[in-house]
Amino acid sequence: MAAQLLDALALFVAFLAGGAHAWVPVRLAAAGSGSERARWARSALPFVLTLALVTLVRARLHPVPFLGAGLLPLGPSPVTTAALVGLGTLILVDLFVALFHAKLEPAGWRVLAAVGGLALVAWSAFEEAARIGSGPAVSLADYLTATALRSVLAIAAGLLVFSRPSPALARFAGVAAAIATAGLWLLTPTIVRSTLAAGGDPLTLAAGGVLVATSPFVPERFRRLAAVFGFVLLALFLARAGAASDQIGLAGRVPPPLP
Questions:
Q1: Are 16 and 235 spatial neighbours (Cβ–Cβ below 8 Å)?
Q2: How many CB atoms lie within 10 A of CB 30?
Q3: Count of domains forming the chain
Q4: C-alpha distance from residue 30 to each of 19, 26, 216, 241 (Å)
Q5: Which pLDDT tens digit goes with each residue over 107-147?
Q6: 18 pLDDT above the threshold of 70
Q7: The CATH number of the domain where 204 resides is what?
Q8: Other residues' Cβ atoms within 10 Å of the Cβ of residue 36
Q9: CA–CA distance from 92 to each of 48, 74, 204 (Å)?
Q10: What does pTM read for this prediction?
Q11: Residue 257 domain-assigned?
Q12: Does 101 score more than 60 pLDDT?
């Protein structure tokens, strides 16, 4: 269970860090004040470094999903290479922003958003491969679709947690997150879904999706908190799904419900 909590923490940090880097520069390009840009310049790099640290600890203490998916050792996997290049690029970009944010024009912020979006997709592909781990194989189409849905969830996290969007945009993000949540469940192999259902994990997924989807409709002072709790539950479900997939792959049979 401790390994699953560590995985969930890493996934939650990835939602926030990846989504923020894809969305916040878009908002700052459109209507960001000098103080908002300075605040992002101070917080962007710590987000990425936190993600890197949590992932390193996760790979050290719980390497099974990474080994099962061929993500470790680092050399052979193009997915790992793309994720590391994306992470390294974000670190360099965030250093640049910390030094020169006051001089950046809107076009520069939009370029940063594009870089953040590409890094997010690369990291989502990495996390989805780790979720599959040693478990049942999936088609390339399903893998790419799940990667895209993870990216949608992360962008929704960046929008709902790190900004105050218009009601229409917030509702759109909530609906997109709900659709992505349902899609990830449907793309999970049947044998893994059966294991998760036996452990009651669909309730975790449903609760997370509902919290995120309805967060734009709750009183304003609770909106961000509702979204955060929703993404915590979604990260926990994805960690459990990865554990179930590995358990099935390593055992070669349908395992009992997860502890």
A1: no
A2: 10
A3: 1
A4: 17, 6, 21, 38
A5: 999 999 999 999 999 999 989 988 887 778 889 999 999 99
A6: yes
A7: 1.20.1630.10
A8: 15
A9: 10, 21, 36
A10: 0.89
A11: no
A12: yes
